[in-house]
Amino acid sequence: MQHLDEGAIHAWLDGALSIEEAVRAEAHVASCSVCADAVAEARGLIAASTRILTALDQVPNVRAAGGAGGAAKRRFLSTWPVRERIAAVMALVVAGGALAVVLSRETPQIAQLDRASEPVRTLELAAADSPAPPPVAAEEAKSETAPVPRASARAVPTSPTGARDLANAREVPSVPQGAVGAAAPATVTTDAYAMRTDDSLRSVTVATAQRAEARDLSAEGKSPVAGKVAAMARQRTVEPQARYVEPRPSAPAVGAAAGAAAPSQGPRLLQEEKMMEGGREVRRRIYMVEGILVTFDERAPVAANEAERAASANVARADTAAASPTIRWTDASGTEFTLTGPGTRERLERIKKLLGY
Amino acid sequence: VTDDVERLFRTYNAPLVRYLTRRLGDRDWAEEVAQETFLRALRQDRIDNERAWLFAVATNLVRDEARKDARRRRHLALLAERERAEGPAEQEPTSLERAQDAAMARRAVDALAERDRLALLMREEGLSYEEIAEALDLSPGSVGTTLSRARRRLVEVYEEQQRARARGTHAAS
Q1: Residue A102 pairs with which residues in a beta bridge?
Q2: Shortest Cα distance from A338 to chain B (angstroms)?
Q3: Which of B3, B11, B38 sits opposite A86 (nearest CB)?
Q4: What's the distance, Cα to Cα, between the start and end of chain B in Å?
């Protein structure tokens, strides 16, 4: 037998040869020192490649709002935007309503940062998608000098998020192809918290298209989409409850009683997670209300100075003029709530009440 | 496919995002592309080989978006620059050495031909030779050769940089 070529050796080591070919290769290597050396070298190359590529997972990932505990924050946040998108698609298809609502409880300081990112993103998307950005977006972008979380995400190399992530997902490649479905890694890492608003908007756009598709399919009497997605959405109402640790007194009742099958009117908790952000604990919950997705953030209050408060109020007025109506209110403790969605303000007010505020 | 989207997401999001992050050097961008890929899967009536399909679609999205995004990314870079100048950034624990490793790895990956690079990154995410061939429109028989070439070149470029760094360190001390 002639010597194995390098491609065949890699294929063999990668388990890509048929059994017969693998047996032949093995037999040859056992009796051929040249090929044995080549195999040893190939093993080294494979291992070194994996090691080198692992270093790529440490991409710069920093935001100005950060503080201690960045890695933990990222791990937590990672699952969020993607899930939100998927959940938004599901929710919107089920509801047939193109309203994604973001309800967040924000302290002024964070609110400023968070909202400040919106106009710039708006401009950026507008610039990418059309030659003429809306005047409002341009105006806002000009007036904003606040940090843009997404843009800043590449300033400094990160901690071992990538490595941990890698450890997580290494399971996948090593599992034989057929079994991959069973060995899904639980979560993925991101820190795209600040992209939330933008993601929601984009989700709505996509979801609207999805919904139209679903409707078309339904009209033709072959709609696999709506029913299955509805089932997924219902399923989600059950799963995350295990993680619902400390119910907030004023929050709506959550649980089996809220109903899983019918499009219930009561807010249902789909997901809850906790994270640290800027050294403060943030609790994020997603509710389904009247078939609408509601995101509810609760941040432990911190003292905010008046300048920030004023700036935050200005930003609030500015982004109310953006695509999605927004209602805001502040409770006695100074905690700020935000409810945003492409629906009417009246609807947002009603949702606010449904959420117990 | 629709009832599988959640399973698809759970199964493939991590490897897909990592693949894209390694390809793009940008986690946020990678997340976006991965999300778009799953949303496209949702619209798809039928997918024969899901993993190959997902990686192929993500790869094509990157190709398309890379052109479209050049302008937008310049804008972002500008904003990031401004922010760095203005505010205190979060200092994460990182060593110079690790940052150098990452930079060397990036240069080594960049030194590969695009097809070799994609094949290698897909293989690292566990795609089979058949899946790689399907996603990249290669013949299955050529995947081994493609991978061996990619790995050799990657390691060579990386080690060359290591030697250069060692010489630099030596010269400095």
Answers
A1: A295, A340
A2: 25
A3: B38
A4: 61
pLDDT tens-place string over residues A59-114: 654 433 333 333 333 333 344 444 555 555 555 545 544 444 444 444 444 444 44
CA A345/CA A116 separation, integer angstroms: 22
- For A124, the closest chain B residue by CA position comes to B72
Neighbours of A264 (CB within 10 A): 16
Q: Do B84 and A195 touch (CB under 8 A)?
A: no
* Residue in A with minimal Cα distance to B3: A228
Q: Cβ contacts (< 8 Å) between A229 and chain B: which residues?
A: 2
Terminal-residue alpha carbon distance, chain A: 79
Instruction: For residue A214, give the nearest of A232, A229, A234, A231 by alpha carbon.
Output: A229
Give pTM, 2 decimals: 0.42
- A96 near A291, Cβ under 8 Å? yes
Asked if B27's CB is within 8 angstroms of A45's CB, the reply is no
Q: Residue A24: helix, strand or coil by DSSP?
A: helix
Query: Which chain A residue shows the shortest CA-CA distance from B2?
Result: A225
pLDDT tens digits along B57-80: 999 998 877 776 666 667 777 777
Over its C-alpha atoms, chain B yields an Rg (Å, rounded) of 19
Q: How far apart are CA B37 and CA B102, in angstroms?
A: 27
- Our CA-based measurement puts residue A347 at a distance from the nearest CA of chain B, in whole angstroms, of 28
- Give the integer Cα–Cα distance in Å for B26 and B37: 16
Q: What is the ipTM of this complex?
A: 0.74
Nearest to B26 among A89, A154, A229 (CB): A154
